[in-house]
Specification:
Layout: E1 3-4, H1 39-72, H2 80-91, H3 93-105, H4 121-142, H5 154-166, H6 168-188, H7 194-212, H8 218-238, H9 242-261, H10 266-271, H11 284-299, E2 318-319
Antiparallel strand pairs: 1-2
Helix pairs in contact: 1-2, 1-3, 1-6, 2-5, 2-6, 3-6, 4-9, 4-11, 5-9, 6-7, 6-9, 7-8, 8-9, 8-11
């Protein structure tokens, strides 16, 4: 028996696609869960993800270096081609993560978008409308103390702007599909219950991805922890990656486009991030992310995290009679 509560406004209006390959009544991070924990398979998936994360970055970086030298006779971390290469390397994680999921777990590629089995554009649009302006404003305020400007050419500034607007959102999405998608699901399937799986997935993906950003400065590291834990929590509660993609994309695009406007050497700053020194200003966006995460949790407080549908059953805000529904840790609130 299925009892459907009123759908949260954020998740309303996107019809799910049912598939027998994905059991009904599972939260997003539990789609890989089974009677066996499949630890070894999960380790292989994480190793492949990290290999792709590093491999695509190196591949596109090398290509950009060759093209920069051959076509533009220049080098260094701060060129439009290098920025485009970094974005494309992360974007490649979207189809790559879907492929790893399909090969190792036999789960359809579309399920990596959300529990609805598809990308919920309505959810993305509403999240962008409600949360985007708040995040944009606080990041802009936090950028008031930007460093010394660099004398970029007009052509470089135009290309930085175009790349930032077109490719940076895809790069942010690639990180979400890899870490809040594939890795979160792998870790979430290793525990016996949904709640413990969510905790494990949120903590491990947040800490690992924060460390991967290469700075142990307390202010910067704290900002990473808040950013990536927020992404993981909203993914869990909304049952998909759309809201996390919006938050991450707005976060990154605002920083990069503002950097273009202020003539900041973004590539140089990223290359020396391990030496960067943060301040309380870096935590201004973190406060907004905490508020946004609390709002998403409040919106889903009655229905709990969204779950996978059964045949012609809704996935949004549903307490369904799946393998974990209504028993032990699987019952969420």
């Amino acid at each position: 028996m299925t009892v459907t509560d009123r759908d949260p406004w954020l998740l309303r209006g996107d019809r799910p696609l049912w598939t027998p390959a994905v059991p009904a009544g599972l939260e997003y991070h539990r789609v890989y869960a089974s009677e066996k924990r499949r630890i070894l398979r999960g380790i292989v998936a994480i190793v492949l993800l990290v290999a792709g994360f590093v491999g695509f970055a190196v591949l596109f970086q090398r290509l950009s270096e060759v093209l920069d030298a051959a076509v533009f006779a220049r080098s260094g971390p701060s060129t439009p081609l290098r920025q485009a290469a970094g974005a494309l390397g992360l974007t490649a994680l979207i189809p790559y993560s879907m492929l790893v999921q399909r090969v190792l777990y036999g789960v359809p590629a579309g399920s990596l978008h959300s529990v609805a089995g598809r990308f919920r554009f309505g959810v993305l649009g509403r999240a962008l409308l409600v949360f985007g302006p708040l995040l944009l404003v606080v990041i802009a305020v936090g950028s008031l103390g930007a460093g010394d400007p660099v004398p970029w050419t007009s052509a470089d500034l135009v290309w930085f702007f175009v790349i930032g607007m077109l490719l940076t959102p895809l790069a942010a999405a690639g990180e979400e599909y890899g870490f809040r998608g594939l890795m979160f699901r792998v870790l979430g399937g290793w525990t016996r219950g949904a709640r413990s799986g969510a905790v494990l997935g949120i903590v491990v993906t947040t800490v690992l991805f924060s460390l991967a950003h290469g700075s142990l400065d307390p202010f910067l590291f704290a900002s990473y922890l808040v950013l990536f834990s927020s992404m993981a929590i909203v993914t869990w509660r909304t049952g998909g990656l759309e809201v996390a993609v919006v938050l991450h994309a707005v976060y990154n695009v605002t920083f990069l486009v503002l950097a273009t406007t202020l003539h900041v050497d973004v590539g140089g700053e990223l290359a020396t991030r391990s030496e960067a020194v943060g301040s309380w200003v870096n935590l201004v966006p973190s406060a907004a992310l905490v508020v946004i995460t609390a709002i998403v949790w409040w919106m889903t407080r009655r229905t709990g995290p969204a779950r996978t549908p059964g045949n012609e059953e809704p996935a949004r805000g549903t307490r369904a009679g799946g393998p974990e529904a209504g028993c032990g840790e699987g019952q969420q609130s």
